[in-house]
Amino acid sequence: MPHTRRHVLRLGAATLVAASVPALELPALAAAVVTADLVIYGATSAGIAAAVTARRLGRTALIVEPGTHVGGLSTGGLGMTDSGVKTAIGGLAGEFYRRVYAKYNGTAVTPTSPARFTFEPHVATAVCDDLLAEAGVPVYLNNRLTGVTKAGNRITEMTCDNGQVYRAAMYVDATYEGDLMAAAGVAWTAGREANSVYGESINGVQLRSGHQFDRFVDPYVTPGSPASGLLPGISAGPVAPTGSGDARIQAYNFRMCLTQAANRIPFARPGGYDAIRYEPLARLVQAGYTGPFFTTHAVGGGKTDSNNNGPFSTDFIGANYGYPTASYAARAAMVEEHRVYQQGLMWFLANDPRLPVSVRSATASWGLAPDEFAGNGGWPTQLYIREARRMVSGYVMTEADCRGSRVPADSVGLASYTMDSHHCQRVVVSGALKNEGDVQIGVPQPYPISYRAIVPYESQCANLLVPVCLSASHIAYGSIRMEPVFMILAQSAATAAHLAITAGSAVQQVPVATLQSRLRADGQLLTWPLTTPGEIIVDSSTSPGVTRAGVWLKSTAATGYWGPDYEHDDNTGKGVNRLRFTPAIPAAGAYQVYLRWTSHANRASNVPVDVCANGTVTTRTVDQRSGGGQWVSLGTFTLPAGSSPAGASVLIRTEATNGYVVADAARFVPA
């Protein structure tokens, strides 16, 4: 009997969300044992990507989800995608964001259609529903893993708390916590490694300036009296030396979807509210701090993806150390504690009389969007698990990979986001309150992720892939841990599982060349830089044909640049500073000309750029506050052969510009 899309069928304590695709033979709902080629644990965006990939490859696949939320953070409020270099996102992940664009614009989805990386939660949910329905993927909800049975080094079945058993040839752990991986006996770690473990420089304890208390805040219950004890949430011990390892993990929070619409849901005082939790913030404001208190990044529909911002914000620092290994009941209690903390913070900011009226009224102008998470009072149903367990396998992704000083040959996808850790603890330094653990260091360009980082040691498990809790150090995971990358790695994991089933082999024995060939055929991007046949790239640092006037400074502070670095005019020498890219054109003809820069709020929005083509000069104006980390087209021009600036060049000028002007690279592609 066919099942209608998103038709919900009860399985005792479980729920099955089925999809209507006649080609899929759904398992019997009353069966104690459910089988498929691939069983995926975790209905995150990665879990959906793995299941859809398997179905498109002709395999049966199902998802087992311990809770009720489908889509992970992508549908849970993280509507401003941490995407890094967007052009490095290929395959099914790229399709996901093209589908988001199509939802908003009513257009078709094609391999070259536009993508959109900001969206409301309900739009991402609709995209996930479509993917699951079209592929015919059953999703079993409220199935919490209780045990794994193995025969030698292979999982034969996994059992859930309602008695349901799932059997498959291959398994994928797509949870944020790594529960299936741990139950299968795979090696893992949690917390921060010391820098000495992998030869890193920004792992472990880091007392830095980001999101930091920039003025004195007394940490004691009675100001000036250590004997009165520390305020809640502050570590009592001394700060360990920089780079020391420990078991702490970066803070969690909820990504709120807020609105200023008239029908917004006001911030309510939660049960369990305790004003002393927010005493450090009250003292900070009394010391002259005026914000920010949280972000309000627009995602569409007059709504936001609101995140932690500032020294005391939505991150519940120090409240999650036990989460990675806690029971499901204990985790639920921690999630509830995070909800009470964050809802209490918003109520405090909107109502506490110790705060200036300006702060209270500005906060109260926002509220929860009533048409998002409607079954949960507008509050997100997914806690942002930024980090939990991390597998330890034959290849551990480290800072060296992120910085490009080590490049694995067995790439199964690209990452490009900043090495990003939120704070891990609040501490006392010289009698003052400080935050510790925040690191935000850019990467020079997209970098490959090793296949060995998503498969365990073969001796530990031969039929499991781990695309979310992959093998990485704390600081490298801070760059990799983004939703697009999880989807990329999940597609690669499911493809590898398909090949292993076909060959009857362990996942560790899948030929990398065969896997990469299939991934490329399905749109996955595996190496950087991306190149087009016949293209010519003139880089500011590595290419001939670059001439300068005035003074240009090299930098790597902002991400998304081409080559080893980029240059800027230091916001000085306006009209004097100029930089020209002149290519060596092999054959006359029509070429599309592109320019690349890195974006930041301090950039100029009115940069004049002259394209010289066959003696004719065409001037474009580019806004370098946006569009960074990608090739921006300046148009198509007829260029003569040779390397003459008048015949073919791009000149960046600085006169009358209203900020820093960046020169990174120019690109010429045969049209």
UniProtKB/TrEMBL annotation:
Taxonomic superkingdom = Bacteria
Protein's name in the database: Xanthan lyase
Q: Which UniProt keywords apply?
A: 4Fe-4S, Iron, Iron-sulfur, Lyase, Metal-binding, Oxidoreductase
Q: Which InterPro entries does this UniProt record tie to the protein?
A: CBD-like_Golvesin-Xly (IPR033803), FAD/NAD-bd_sf (IPR036188), HdrA-like (IPR039650), TAT_signal (IPR006311)
The protein's matches in Gene3D superfamilies, at most eight in alphabetical order, are given as: FAD/NAD(P)-binding domain, Galactose-binding domain-like
- Which PROSITE patterns does the UniProt entry name for this protein? TAT
Q: Name one GO molecular function term.
A: metal ion binding
